[in-house]
Amino acid sequence: MSFFFKKRSSKKTTNVSDDRLVVEYEDIDTGEIINEELEIDDSTAEDDDGHGLYNYEVAATLHEQAIQIMHRQSIIVSAAEMKEALQLMPKVSGLARHINDSPTLHEEFDQLVQRNNQLDGSKRTLDRCVATRWNSDFQCLLSCKYFQKEVEQITAISKHGLTSYQLSANQWSLLKDLIDALEEATDLFSQKDVPLIMDVLPIFFDIRLSLTNILMDKKNRIHPILKVAAKAALLMIEKYTILTSESEVYYIAIVMCPDRKLDWFKECDYHDERIEEIKDMVVK
Q: Can you give the pTM of this predicted structure?
């Protein structure tokens, strides 16, 4: 998600010169909207004990790695595309905040909703992004898509002062692609049952598979920046999957699970040597 809502003062681009990978920096003007929303995020993060800052620093490092790796695979994101992507979440979350915080705008939006006979539910307004709620970004995007007609109408009225929150055609397309990419993982972690230890590795595997499917798109149906973001997410998954090897309990729990056992590792293409090592963990 760091590709869609955090301000970056510069963008790394890579080129090959004399058989060397050259990293260049290009300033990106992401606009006042991002600055405004970052101030809101910073005020919320003061009570976050530094977790948000740490997570962002980790994401930023993987962000740069993913850009370079995908560049070598001819997946290139231009400065203009990066700018549009970086403005997406600030626009969506900022619009939701303005509408929910202003009685006038809230009433105007509600009237637009009432006039739309095609809406099929009791939902009346946009969902906010809440820094301390892990799935609020997804819900905010989802509600913006649901109310696309109303969002386009209210941001087109100059007297409301919301014209800077209008989404371009490319941003609407990116928003919908992002929802599709996040939906499976969000549904997975939104289940009522608390995941058990034996579910940790299978969940990582399912997320990795979903992200890999994005990277394997051969028909150019998925925006390049979403592929780069998927690569960054894969790097994060790999980071934490490696950390699970420090504790045998994750592997033993799967082997002891009646409907998984060692067969699960075989189905997930673990090497024979690694499967033997896991077997030894259980029987030693």
A: 0.73
